[in-house]
Design a protein that fits this description.
468 residues; alpha+beta; Lipocalin; 3 domains; five-stranded antiparallel β-sheet; four-stranded antiparallel β-sheet; elongated
């Protein structure tokens, strides 16, 4: 508003100045000429400015409008970096999968087919394993393919254990092959079924070990095969080492075990050689007599694995306790033998095998009398072998008092008489066995009435010399 008022004042003053200047100019320029024409100039003043505001009321100073903050210009986005196109890589050539021969219909044709598969896969054990698994020949922890130098040529051979997936037999039907490199191919140098009869081919064949078992820096091969009767299967354990043309036998004698539950090699004493442990032993036939599970231990003796110990599961059968005491005595473990014979006499909870049924060879009471009399006689023998003649004589006196009619009282009398005369344990035993031989029907034969799975005695088994 203050700007408009100033403009009006300026305009009025300017116009007044022009009028005054015009009058002065007329006086200065006029000359008395008769031809001059009088001109009237009318000036209109601008209207007087009327202040409508109350007097002395100051006009408020307008609030300055803040200058807006500058918005920075956006930063230029650099153009994208040029990414070079990838170099074209040609697809690799497709390597054809080796064609695996189909599973043969006849189990006897497996070995040659497996050898051809080894040729096809270049001896790759995983590829061979996969092929056999596709056949169903390796399954449920049965079967394997291992790389072991079995033939001592510095090259890894293939040890192949497989099953017949079509077999319907009481035991698994399997085979073990050893394939050795032959140039770019493979050659079969061992077949566990070679020479087996048609009825037993592959029956119970299982690989136990393909490694150094006796610390001779050479891998041994251990495996099983079986033969089954009407009630029970008997397993044979084979252990061999490579000779250049085959595997030589490393068992001290035939290892045949009924109803095998488990077989394993374990270094029990840390000497670097493995002991063979076989567990099982039950014959599934009533005629076999009383039995219990046992573990047989075979140890390396420098030339072969031989039976050195038998561990029995607990039992309450009276005759089985007597047989175990006999084993302890024969092994030279006289303290254990004495303890077991004493239990036979004092522990009435042990059960006789025979019953009162018709046709039984003896009654339960007759069995108990037979075996307690035998145990008292063996206590005379055991204490004499220990040099404890007082204890031996005490047990002889008890036998005389408690079982004077026992056939083993006379065995003990013959033994003691000879011992007293010449103090020679072997001759004393010979005298006892001579009496047993002359009285087989009363001394020897009754001990053989406990089934065919139990010991069968001869006269020379009545008195035995403990191992030293």
């Amino acid at each position: 508003m203050r700007s408009a008022l100033g403009f009006h004042l300026w305009f009025a003053l300017s116009l007044t100045g022009l009028l005054v200047a015009g009058c002065n100019a007329q006086s200065f320029l006029a000359s008395p000429t008769p031809t001059a024409t009088q001109v009237r100039i009318t000036a209109t003043l601008a209207p007087t400015f009327t202040n409508t505001h109350e007097p002395d009321t100051p006009t408020p100073t307008p609030t300055d409008t803040p200058i807006p903050t500058d918005t920075p210009m956006p930063t230029d986005t650099p153009p994208p970096t040029y990414t070079a196109l990838p170099t074209y890589t040609p697809l690799p050539s497709v390597t054809p999968t080796p064609r695996i021969p189909p599973r043969p219909a006849d189990f006897l044709d497996y070995p040659d087919t497996i050898r051809r598969i080894a040729d096809t896969v270049g001896g790759d054990p995983q590829e061979l394993w996969s092929a056999l698994a596709q056949w169903g020949a390796i399954r449920d922890g049965q079967g394997t393919v291992k790389q072991v130098d079995m033939t001592l040529d510095g090259k890894s051979d293939l040890v192949v254990w497989y099953m017949n997936p079509r077999a319907n037999l009481p035991l698994v039907q399997g085979d073990i092959l050893i394939l050795t490199p032959n140039g770019s191919n493979w050659r079969n140098v061992f077949d566990a079924n070679f020479g087996a009869s048609a009825s037993t081919v592959g029956l119970g064949v299982q690989l136990l070990a393909a490694e150094d078992l006796n610390n001779d820096r050479q891998a041994e091969l251990a495996w099983t095969w079986a033969d089954c009767g009407a009630h029970t299967c008997f397993t044979t354990v084979e252990i061999g080492s490579w000779t250049g043309t085959g595997f030589s036998d490393l068992t001290a004698g035939d290892i045949v075990f009924p109803t095998l539950q488990s077989a394993e090699f374990v270094d029990q004493n840390g000497d670097g050689t493995r002991e063979l442990l076989l567990t099982g032993g039950i014959i599934s036939s009533v005629g076999a007599g009383p039995q219990r599970v046992r573990t047989e231990i075979y140890r390396w003796n420098g030339s072969g694995w031989a039976l050195t110990d038998t561990l029995y599961a607990a039992t309450d059968w009276l005759p089985l306790v007597v047989w175990e005491a006999n084993d302890r005595l024969a092994a030279g473990d006289l303290a254990e033998a004495i303890d077991l014979y004493s239990q036979v006499i004092t522990n009435g909870s042990f059960k006789p095998w025979h019953s009162e049924s018709a046709g039984a060879a003896m009654t339960a009471e007759e069995e108990r009398a037979l075996l307690t009399g035998f145990s008292r006689w063996r206590l005379v023998l055991a204490h004499t072998a220990l040099g404890k003649t007082d204890e031996a004589e005490t047990w002889l006196a008890r036998l005389r008092e408690t079982q004077p009619d026992s056939p083993y009282r006379q065995v003990a009398e013959r033994f003691w008489q000879t011992w007293q005369s010449i103090r020679d344990l072997k001759q004393a035993c010979d005298a006892a066995n001579s009496y047993a031989s002359s009285n087989r029907t009363t001394v020897v034969e009754p001990l053989n009435n406990f089934g065919y799975a139990n010991p069968q005695f001869e006269a020379n088994d009545i008195c035995v010399l403990p191992s030293r």
